[in-house]
């Protein structure tokens, strides 16, 4: 459709319309809509249990929505499987850190380059020069990423042995290995101290520029997003629904935001 | 350094293969019957353990249905390798003429059985792959029981519980170890490629794997297809070494032995699977005479059928308690690693 | 029609055995997360204990039945001690392998000691015979089995739902760490769970002896798989569901065999697997919601 093409050129990179998801009786996401421009860094905040992680699950297709649409680069990706969504260019990190058990950081990185598939089975079985070349390149690229994140010296350690803050970095490095256009970060700073948080925020801004990413950054700690003012705009969620959207300054005044947080704090 | 690398890349394979062939040739010539059989059983067990490790150790698709696969492949091949007079006159199978009246050589029989095993494996896997954990195990267990039961109850095609005999002695050192090296080679190579990494990623964390763009269903089918192909071939080699095939030959007890091999060696490790196969093969053969009863100073010690299995059960539990990662953990045996370890211990 | 009803009645015994086994299975799974593949051997050991009491020691049936149940409990506790406790907390696969090993080990040991030949298990005089109602035979043993099933089932439900132990069990099935922090003695509950599950297997063993009149070393192999499927049908973790699932499966299987052409009778095992596949694909959570878990 020509209209579709048009939209792909100018429209937002990600458009979510009227997303609903319930678990049994619990409405985790309620009529959620969001529009993300190319190159935008959008914050998604809300108190515990607001449904932020579920929104990510719905975008990547890990959960299937009850209704609503997710459109990425003009392509309808609603309820597609995660591997297809990933292939189209959406990568994510996880709130609960996921490290491949008993696997070295460098190997975890190589695994994350899966989508590149630079050679085929026959190259593997016959050990063609192409295989050797590509594997070496993969290793270099993996190290490059680790260097960028300042963890190259830990390449041969087991991922699960790293301190928490560094595991978070591995998680982001792994997501970047998928060469995404859209990066979904689920509370990347949770569990980090202030120094680590500052560093990570720097890294996020840096990779955004370097890789030309659009980013949705989930936080439940409002201060991280508010104090740094890194987001172009911020969506506030409460009990599954969007209650408001605006810039940092706008939100600071907003009664509803404060109420959502305080209300949740008291309850 | 660069020169040496170039040298090894070109010369490694011919030299390696030449050495292996020579060793196999010498062993084939010099080993007395009993030891030769033992050596062949070791090879077959290696094939079984390495291929089971692909599903159970890497992809975390813990199957105990591989015995059913061996039955499927074993019978498929057997129907073609049995002598015509045996099929027609002695047991009178009710089969179409194109099966009944032919006897094919080993290679096509192996390929045929392997493909049948693989197809049956994938058919089993398709519904089972929706399941996880204990449900998956359960379905594979049931599959094994069903295959035994089918083999027993279709006497027109399988001769039922009476089993099949009079196989040609096709299995020899070359087939067994040729295929064993092939499986080991494939497994080791895959492990160092995006394919093997995808298998392992699925085994460790399915959700994460999915979010790395890995198509779960596709890779689970690959893992199962590959593993069952070689498992079926292992079964066929077994049949043409032991020279009979009964429905109960590849029951849960056999799968249990192979599971023990990979647990002892270290689940996920190819070298571990080979070591496990060696240990269990040796163990079984050492105990075989005791199982069958023997005489000491003129006193007949009665047979103790099942002793091996019983001891294996004990060993398996002990290993899981004392050293759950097995001998190799998930690592691989390598000369470099060995050298490193040696130089490290020298340095200390 | 008469044939159909008659076959259903015949299936009741088998169904009751599966119900008792399934209930035990589902309890160990629901409460401590273990799929105990050695459950079939616990059942078999119970049958042997009763057999020895009855036929070797010549004890009266009632005493033999109690000894059978005690025998099952003894083996159950042994399994807990050697194949569960030392690897507790390891992954599901490890737990499965150890219980699988225990299962094969115990079965092999019994085959070595007592061979796998069928041994007679004679039932007491008061269970022999049948009532003829219309064209239907109703065996006294069937009635007895059903009565036992109802009584034991009711006791079990009472225990799980109403007693302190039962409440502790359910707390553990939700979250054993929290349960422990609430002051529940999880060690004790694990042992009690094993005892109850094994006792149920012992009851099933007596039912088996009475129903079929013979026992053997490998008798635990099939029913344990069937019983596991019964508990899946009923929703893993749901005691009542397992009992219903066992009855459905046992009766269904008997009917399936009754209408199978004679030359295919050996394919009876297929039935339970067909049922399982349907359940897993249509309603993986089983018929009932889990109440233990
Ligand atoms: N798989 C699930 N099954 C049932 N309920 C779920 C599931 N996933 C999430 N929920 C529920 O949905 C609601 C939203 O959860 P979600 O994880 O999306 O919140 P969140 O905004 O990410 O919170 P947090 O800040 O704690 O990460 C919660 O009430 C949660 O309990
Ligand atoms: Mg969250």
Structural features:
heterotrimer, A: 267 residues, alpha/beta, Rossmann fold, 6-stranded mixed beta sheet, 4-stranded antiparallel beta sheet, 43% helix, globular, disordered N terminus, C: 293 residues, mainly alpha, ABC transporter involved in vitamin B12 uptake, BtuC, two-stranded antiparallel ribbon, two-stranded antiparallel sheet, 11 helices, 4 strands, binds adenosine-5'-triphosphate, binds magnesium ion
Describe the protein in words:
Chain A has 11 helices and 10 strands. Chain A has 267 residues and is of the alpha/beta class. Chain B is built from 16 helices and 2 strands. In chain B, strands 1-2 form a two-stranded antiparallel ribbon. Chain B is globular. Chain C has one domain: ABC transporter involved in vitamin B12 uptake, BtuC. In chain C, helix 1 crosses helix 9 and helix 2 packs across helix 8. Chains in contact: A-B, B-C. Chains B and C meet through helix 7, helix 13 and helix 15 of B and helix 4, helix 9 and helix 11 of C. The structure holds adenosine-5'-triphosphate (ATP) and magnesium ion. The site of magnesium ion has 4 residues of chain A, from helix 2.
Nutshell version of this structure?
With 267 residues, chain A is α/β, with parallel strands linked by helices. Chain A has two domains: 12-98 and 180-264, P-loop containing nucleotide triphosphate hydrolases (Rossmann fold, 3-Layer(aba) Sandwich); 100-161, no CATH class.
Domain tally of chain A: 2
Q: What's the multimeric state? A: heterotrimer
CATH architecture of chain C: Orthogonal Bundle
Q: Sum up the overall morphology of chain A in one term.
A: globular
The averaged pLDDT of chain A comes out at 88
Strand content of chain C: under 5%
Reported by name, the CATH topology of the largest domain in chain A is Rossmann fold
In spatial order, strands of the major sheet of chain C run 1-4
What is Rg of chain C? 19 Å
**Run of helices and strands of chain A:** HEEEHEEHEHHHHEHEHEEHH
By CATH, the architecture of the largest domain in chain A is named 3-Layer(aba) Sandwich
Shape of chain C: globular
Q: What's the helical proportion of residues of chain C?
A: over 70%
If helices are DSSP runs of H or I spanning 4 or more residues, what is the number of helices of chain A?
Answer: 11
Q: Which CATH top level class of the largest domain in chain A fits?
A: Alpha Beta
- Label the structural class of chain C: mainly alpha
């Amino acid at each position: 459709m020509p209209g579709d093409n048009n939209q792909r050129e100018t429209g937002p990179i990600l458009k979510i319309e009227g997303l609903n998801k319930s678990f049994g009786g619990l409405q985790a996401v309620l009529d959620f809509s969001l529009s993300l421009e190319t190159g935008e860094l959008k914050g998604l905040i809300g108190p515990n249990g607001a449904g932020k992680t579920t929104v990510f699950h719905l975008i990547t297709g890990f959960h299937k929505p009850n209704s609503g649409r997710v459109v990425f680069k003009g392509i309808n990706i609603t309820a597609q499987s995660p591997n297809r969504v990933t292939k189209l260019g959406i990568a994510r990190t996880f709130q609960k850190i996921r490290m491949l058990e008993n696997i070295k950081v460098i190997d975890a990185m190589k695994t994350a380059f899966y989508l590149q598939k630079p050679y085929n089975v026959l190259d593997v079985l016959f050990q063609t020069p192409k295989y050797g070349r590509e594997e070496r390149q993969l290793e270099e690229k993996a190290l490059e990423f680790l260097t960028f994140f300042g963890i190259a010296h830990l390449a041969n350690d087991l991922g699960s042995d790293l301190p928490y803050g560094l595991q978070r970095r591995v998680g982001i490095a792994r997501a970047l290995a998928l060469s995404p256009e859209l990066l979904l970060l689920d509370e990347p700073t949770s569990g980090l101290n202030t120094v680590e948080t500052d560093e990570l925020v720097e890294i996020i801004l840096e990779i955004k520029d370097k890789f030309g990413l659009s980013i949705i950054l989930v936080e439940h700690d409002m201060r991280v997003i508010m104090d740094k003012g890194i987001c172009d705009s911020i969506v506030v969620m409460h009990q599954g629904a969007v209650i408001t959207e605006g810039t940092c300054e706008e939100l600071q005044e907003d009664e509803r935001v404060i109420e959502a947080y305080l209300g949740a704090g008291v309850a | 350094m660069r020169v040496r690398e170039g040298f090894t890349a070109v010369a490694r394979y011919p030299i390696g293969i030449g050495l292996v062939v020579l060793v196999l040739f010498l062993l084939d010539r010099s080993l007395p019957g009993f030891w030769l059989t033992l050596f062949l059983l070791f090879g077959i067990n290696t094939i079984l353990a390495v291929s089971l490790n692909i599903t159970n150790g890497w992809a975390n698709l813990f199957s105990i249905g591989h015995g059913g696969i061996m039955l499927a492949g074993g019978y498929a091949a057997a129907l073609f390798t049995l002598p015509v007079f045996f099929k027609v006159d002695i047991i009178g199978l009710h089969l179409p003429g194109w099966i009944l009246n032919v006897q094919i050589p080993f290679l096509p029989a192996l390929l045929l059985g392997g493909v049948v095993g693989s197809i049956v494996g994938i058919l089993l896997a398709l519904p089972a792959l929706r399941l996880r954990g204990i449900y998956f195990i359960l379905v594979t267990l049931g599959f094994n029981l069903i295959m035994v039961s089918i083999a027993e109850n279709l006497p027109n095609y399988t001769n039922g519980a009476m089993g099949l005999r009079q196989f040609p002695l096709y299995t020899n050192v070359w087939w067994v170890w040729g295929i064993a090296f092939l499986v080991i080679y494939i497994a080791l190579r895959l492990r160092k490629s995006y394919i093997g990494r995808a298998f392992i990623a699925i085994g460790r964390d399915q959700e994460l794997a999915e979010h790395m763009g890995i198509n779960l269903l596709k890779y689970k089918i690959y893992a199962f297809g590959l593993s069952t192909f070689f498992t079926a071939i292992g079964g066929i080699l077994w049949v043409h070494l032991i020279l009979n095939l009964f429905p109960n030959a590849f029951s849960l007890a056999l799968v249990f032995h192979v599971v023990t091999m990979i647990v002892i060696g270290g689940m996920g490790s190819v070298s571990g699977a080979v070591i496990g196969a060696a240990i269990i093969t040796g163990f079984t053969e050492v105990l075989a005479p005791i199982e069958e009863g023997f005489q000491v100073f003129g006193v007949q010690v009665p047979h103790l059928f099942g002793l091996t299995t019983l001891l294996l059960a004990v060993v398996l539990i002990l290993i899981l308690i004392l050293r759950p990662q097995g001998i190799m953990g998930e690592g691989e045996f390598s000369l470099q690693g060995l050298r490193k370890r040696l130089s490290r211990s020298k340095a200390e | 029609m008469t044939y159909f009803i008659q076959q259903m009645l015949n299936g009741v015994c088998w169904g009751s055995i599966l119900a008792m086994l399934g209930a035990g299975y589902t309890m160990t799974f629901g409460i401590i997360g273990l799929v105990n593949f050695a459950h079939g051997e616990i059942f078999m050991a119970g049958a042997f204990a009763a057999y020895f009491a009855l036929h070797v020691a010549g004890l009266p049936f009632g005493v033999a039945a109690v000894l059978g149940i005690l025998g099952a409990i003894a083996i159950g506790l042994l399994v807990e001690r050697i194949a569960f406790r030392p690897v507790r907390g390891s992954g599901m696969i490890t737990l499965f392998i150890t219980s699988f090993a225990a299962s094969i080990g115990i079965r092999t040991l019994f085959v070595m000691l007592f061979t796998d030949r069928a041994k007679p298990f004679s039932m007491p005089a008061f269970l022999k015979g049948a009532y003829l109602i219309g064209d239907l035979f109703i065996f006294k043993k069937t009635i007895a089995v059903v009565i036992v099933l109802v009584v034991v089932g009711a006791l079990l439900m009472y225990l799980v739902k109403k007693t302190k132990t039962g409440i502790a069990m359910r707390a553990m099935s939700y979250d054993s760490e929290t349960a422990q922090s609430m002051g529940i003695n999880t060690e004790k509950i694990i042992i009690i769970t094993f005892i109850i599950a094994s006792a149920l297997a012992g009851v099933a063993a007596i039912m088996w002896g009475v129903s079929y009149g013979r026992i053997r070393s490998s008798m635990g192999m099939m029913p344990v798989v069937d019983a596991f499927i019964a508990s899946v049908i009923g929703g893993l973790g749901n005691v009542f569901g397992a009992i219903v699932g066992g009855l459905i499966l046992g009766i269904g299987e008997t009917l399936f065999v009754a209408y199978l052409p004679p030359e295919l009778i050996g394919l009876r095992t297929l039935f339970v697997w067909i049922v399982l596949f349907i359940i897993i694909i249509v309603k993986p959570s089983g018929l009932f919601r889990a109440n233990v878990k």
